[in-house]
Design brief:
The complex is a heterodimer of chains A (about 280) and B (about 280).
Chain A lengths: L2 H22 L4 H37 L3 E3 L7 E2 L6 E5 L2 E10 L10 H15 L6 E9 L3 H20 L6 H23 L3 E13 L2 H23 L4 E2 L3 H7 L1 H4 L2 H17 L1
Antiparallel strand pairs in A: 2-3, 3-4, 4-6, 4-7, 5-6
Chain B lengths: L2 H24 L3 H35 L2 E3 L4 E3 L6 E5 L2 E12 L10 H20 L5 E9 L2 H24 L4 H23 L5 E13 L2 H18 L5 E5 L3 H9 L7 H7 L5
Antiparallel strand pairs in B: 2-3, 3-4, 4-6, 4-7, 5-6
Helix pairs in contact in B: 1-2, 4-5
The chains are: A alpha+beta (about 280), B alpha+beta (about 280).
């Protein structure tokens, strides 16, 4: 039997007992207040019993912890499998492994003819029904990590500044102008690169499998992924691949959607503009 | 309402009725007024929870200021509509939008030419929508294949029922034309669905939702930016003819868990979504 039913029965039983107690306590000024309190508690348990259908995951921790910040779990939501190609979640005594399949599609609707667009839509429609098992088809628009690129530009600015300061006492006006121009160019490049985010669009499919052992769950998920990849390859004519390591994190963790290096540069720019204005 | 919902509703209202029958024993005068108020308030709350639990829970927890930690590093805000993760002093706020096809957009009601025109338009509309978005987002379609025989049997049952309704309406005289055309429309939709299955198309159950993440140097900044992004996403995706609703309450928690493990069968998938999805 579903454990939720026991919560329903438990809460309703408590409510019934409280009601009976409220009804059979003798009357009196103070006792009337107690009766009202018992009635209110009974009704609260009745409402909680009804809400337990969907909110049993909240009600029990709320009653146990009785504070404003309820901890449902203090464990990380998943861990990356040692193979790097799946993430694993523990559910009761079982393990659920989830694999992410990258679909490399590089087509643009605006470059297609009407017939090609129609065909592509039907392909996507077939893609959705490729698996009898549940699968999640996703498109992710994320900010590109420009950290390495920004580092290179900042290094170039540093070098240009050194070059200019070395020429400070020199009589060579042409060389000085060239160094100033170089510094100004790199600063403009940095401003341009930092002024707005560069986006990238990726398409992926998620598939999960459950087993009593972690390695079994991973193996079943990989098997499901292989079957899906065959179907996807046939429908779209592309070669899908399983996402591994850092690529998986980009699909799961919010901070990988917006890389820290890029975002800190943008925040810096916003502050600079705020100060100037 | 499904059988489980009816059971929860019936048992909870049974306790409310029990409270009403005990009301005379609780006390007379002002006490009975308070008792009646408590019982009626509980009954109203149960009815609200039955029809819009996500809204009631969101308002309730918002007023009480209760937040949840679904996993280490993550917090569900008191309004139950956003998730917060803090990494290196930067706050990442994530929100979800459910995307349901509008009733009148069901392609079973369209002619072949209209379907083809829509299929040809779809890639362009999608590309235009995405090119207007300048922040990270994910578009998910969770799909699960259904048993062809079961779906066929269900559709045949529904068609028989509609045909029975039609024969009943034909015998009555009042409001005949409108009722007949409405039932005919329903029969046509069911017939089209059956024809598609007969033509080899696989029946699929789908849940569509979108996810976006905003960043800020404080929790409030990230949440404000998230609200702005969600509004922008609703505007950008509106040409796709979707009913876009912000996800709140238990469905937010469910979608958060889907990041790490998707449902393993169709029953599990459909059990999560009955109001917003």
């Amino acid at each position: 039997m579903n454990p939720k039913i026991f919560i329903l029965i438990g809460f309703l039983a408590i409510a019934a007992v409280l009601l009976v107690a409220a009804a059979y306590i003798p009357n009196g000024v103070v006792l009337d207040l107690l009766k009202l309190l018992l009635l209110a508690l009974a009704m609260a348990f009745t409402v909680a019993a009804f809400a337990s259908r969907y909110y049993s995951y909240l009600l029990i921790p709320m009653l146990q912890q009785r504070r404003r910040h309820i901890v449902l779990s203090d464990q990380p939501p998943y861990w990356l499998a040692s193979t790097g190609d799946a993430i694993v979640v523990k559910k009761d005594n079982d393990f659920i492994a989830t694999t992410y399949i990258n679909i490399p599609i590089y087509v643009s609707g605006s470059e297609m003819s009407n017939e090609e667009r129609q065909r592509f839509s039907y392909q996507i429609s077939n893609l959705i029904s490729v698996s009898k098992e549940p699968a999640r088809f996703s498109t992710e628009l994320r900010i590109m990590d420009k950290g390495e690129y920004l580092k290179l530009i900042k290094e170039a600015i540093g070098n240009a500044e050194n070059e200019l300061s070395a020429l400070e006492k020199s009589e060579d006006v042409l060389a000085k102008d060239r160094a100033r121009g170089k510094l100004s160019m790199w600063k403009k490049v940095l401003d341009h690169i930092s002024s707005k985010s560069s986006m990238e669009l990726v398409t992926f499919v998620t598939v999960s499998a459950i087993a009593s052992k972690e390695y079994e769950a991973i193996m079943i998920a990989q098997q499901k992924a292989r079957e899906l990849m065959n179907g996807i390859g046939t429908i779209l004519g592309v070669t899908p691949n399983v996402s591994v390591g850092g690529e998986v994190l980009k699909l799961v963790e919010p901070e990988y959607l917006i890389p820290l290096s890029t975002i800190s540069q943008e925040i810096e720019m916003k502050i600079e503009h705020g100060v100037v204005e | 309402m499904d059988p489980e919902g009816i059971m929860y509703f019936a048992f909870s209202l049974l306790i409310v009725l029990m409270a009403l029958s005990f009301a005379p024993k609780i006390g007379g005068g002002i006490v009975s007024i308070f008792a009646a108020f408590i019982i009626v308030a509980a009954a109203i709350l149960i009815v609200i929870l039955n029809f819009a639990d996500y809204l009631a829970v969101s308002i309730g927890f918002g007023m009480l200021g209760i937040t949840f930690q679904p996993a280490a590093g993550y917090t569900i805000t008191k309004e139950q509509k956003s998730l917060i993760k803090q990494v290196g002093g930067i706050y990442y706020a994530t929100g979800y939008i459910s995307g349901n096809l509008f009733q009148y957009e069901f392609k079973q009601e369209l002619g072949d030419e209209e379907i083809e025109a829509k299929m040809a338009e779809a890639p362009l509309k999608w590309e235009q929508a995405v090119s207007n978005i300048t922040f990270p987002f994910k578009y998910h379609v969770l799909a699960a294949g259904l048993s062809v025989q079961n779906v066929r049997d269900e559709l045949e049952g529904k068609r028989s029922y509609q045909e029975y309704e039609l024969s009943k309406v034909m015998q009555n005289s009042s409001g005949k034309d409108m009722a007949v055309s409405e039932i005919q429309r329903k029969i046509n939709v069911l017939q089209r669905k059956m024809d598609r299955i007969s033509a080899g198309e696989k029946p699929v159950a789908t849940v569509m939702y979108m996810e976006t993440t905003a960043v800020g140097v404080s929790e409030k900044a990230a949440l404000d930016e998230l609200d702005r992004q969600i509004s922008a996403l609703q505007i950008a995706l509106s040409p796709l003819n979707l009913d876009l609703q912000r996800v709140m309450g238990r469905e937010l928690y469910t979608l958060f868990k889907f990041n790490f493990a998707i449902p393993l069968n169709h029953d599990e998938m459909s059990g999560y979504f009955d109001k917003q999805g």
